[in-house]
Structure prediction request, 690 residues.
Amino acid sequence: MYDMRTTYGKLPKEVLEKTVFKWLGAKRKDVLLWPAYGEDAAVVDVPKRRLVIACDPITGSRKLLGWLSVHINANDVAVCGAKPAWFSSCILLPKNDEHLFASIVKQIHRAASELHVSVITGHSEVALHISEPIIIGTMIGIVEGNKYYMTRGAKPGDKILMTKTAAIEGTAILATDLSEALSSKIDKRLLKRASMFYRKISVVNEAIKIASTGLATAMHDPTEGGLLGGLYEMSEASGTGFIVYENAIPIARETKIICETLRCDPLKLISSGTLIASFRGNYKKIISALKRAGIKAAIIGEVVPKKYGRKVIRSEGTVESIKSTVTDELWRILSEHLLQKCGTN
Amino acid sequence: MYDMRTTYGKLPKEVLEKTVFKWLGAKRKDVLLWPAYGEDAAVVDVPKRRLVIACDPITGSRKLLGWLSVHINANDVAVCGAKPAWFSSCILLPKNDEHLFASIVKQIHRAASELHVSVITGHSEVALHISEPIIIGTMIGIVEGNKYYMTRGAKPGDKILMTKTAAIEGTAILATDLSEALSSKIDKRLLKRASMFYRKISVVNEAIKIASTGLATAMHDPTEGGLLGGLYEMSEASGTGFIVYENAIPIARETKIICETLRCDPLKLISSGTLIASFRGNYKKIISALKRAGIKAAIIGEVVPKKYGRKVIRSEGTVESIKSTVTDELWRILSEHLLQKCGTN
Prediction:
């Protein structure tokens, strides 16, 4: 008889002991109860402070699944001005693949260690009804002092700053997933460099630095919908408009070339790794605080009253209005590529 | 062209505003940043205390998906002696079904309200690679005072107590999922009552009551593997053995009849809703504290040194040793039923 239990359900104790009970990120002293057999929860010691909690899934069979899950959730916590501290994950696998499981858990451990984050609880099972691994991460961060930041804090008159370059994550995804198609058109070394853009995906450092200046009014990390999507979300949450200048927006050479080749807009391409912040006061103070930490930043525009709309002034001088949630270019590019591939097979 | 974006990805703002931004459980004053458009995290205010965090998925198309997600995670937090306070969920849907989504979110709201828990952050999307809805819940609870409980705290000589009856969740699942097959063999009113056993699934009240007596050494809520599976986990985590008496274990009439009909062991049937605790001292103090809260409990055996093994003395006098993780009867019963159904079609 087919025994579902040997195929689905929680992973065996022996596997857990070699993986999730072993690779637990940083050894923070404030974790009182760590993951262990039979323990279904974690206990942490909290100073009288404010906590920030964020929860995001990573789906698909991407190589960096576990690593991304930590960083994406850490970003959401950091843009609130909190230092990521404790991470828990739910790992769902389509089939019992010990090697894949161990590699995911190791990635989580590595990313958590980088951020001085402990992995405190979680769940892992071979689940029915899924065909690819799914990781759902929850990150808890501690607010330094009393001030926390929200996406909704932008006010007309604030300047808008962005860190690093546009479309960091999108560049890495396209260079990796479409490497075959792109390698005939683009220099392979450039493509290799572009695929390493994943390394820039954390905005934790810059968020904490910006928070420490006390000048920001809102922070946000643009993901789906790219830089313009993130700006739309920030202005919609804040009840404002914005105006930004394409000329002022830093775009990496790798991103430019890949986007030109695929005819896609780097300002609408998934952009984890970039931080946007609205702020008042002396921008030099922020820029130099970031520079000391080795992070480049640029002033790309300003927050305006909602009635003035949400606009990007393109390099050629035309004005484009952003009137609703921005559809990410990634979906269009990947589905076009999928169709082409099906057509030629 | 097929636009993946209209089919997969985050749900639209309009849908979120009618659902996840509206039904947020209890209105706790310690929540500083609530779910809202563009906000990817929550902020909560924490007194100088200890927090307990638990994370579990609920998969499948079960009617009570959202409601179960809150209670199952609340149970894991409560058995550590913490009061559940804040819940976040990641809701993954196989297709865009607004009605299903709203019903899940309403269930979460209802369960959270019952427990005075606020829904503080989360994520919802139509996801690739899944064929049934999946909810991953994370619950954070606050430890009252300094003492928290672990599964691993049991010591030889402790008595073992259980609340309510065995196989509560399994009874509800079998009565619901096999109602067609069972209704020809069992009184329909009894089957109806059995399907309502879901209502007994929370162990939060009893866990908090038992914690308040200060007599418990460990608490655990048996889920997969049933009561005996839970006892195995507790003894394995504690490095002890146990001896329990089938005669002393309360089993509801509904459970008895369904298990006899399906020839399954109620002591190995999934048992959320039952709490097990090891304790020292005057059992009458615990039993009467529970009684005042309307919860029945029984002493079913004791913790022994590991070398004495893990044993259940069956009603007929035979001794059964539990030597490894208990395979839940549910998987066997459901797969047998599935095979029968396939055979007759």
Remarks:
- Residues 151-344 of chain A form a domain with the Phosphoribosyl-aminoimidazole Synthetase; Chain A, domain 2 fold (CATH 3.90.650.10).
- The first strand of chain A starts at residue 9 and ends at 10.
- Confidence is low (pLDDT under 50) at residues 1-6 of chain A.
- Chain A has two domains: 4-143, 151-344.
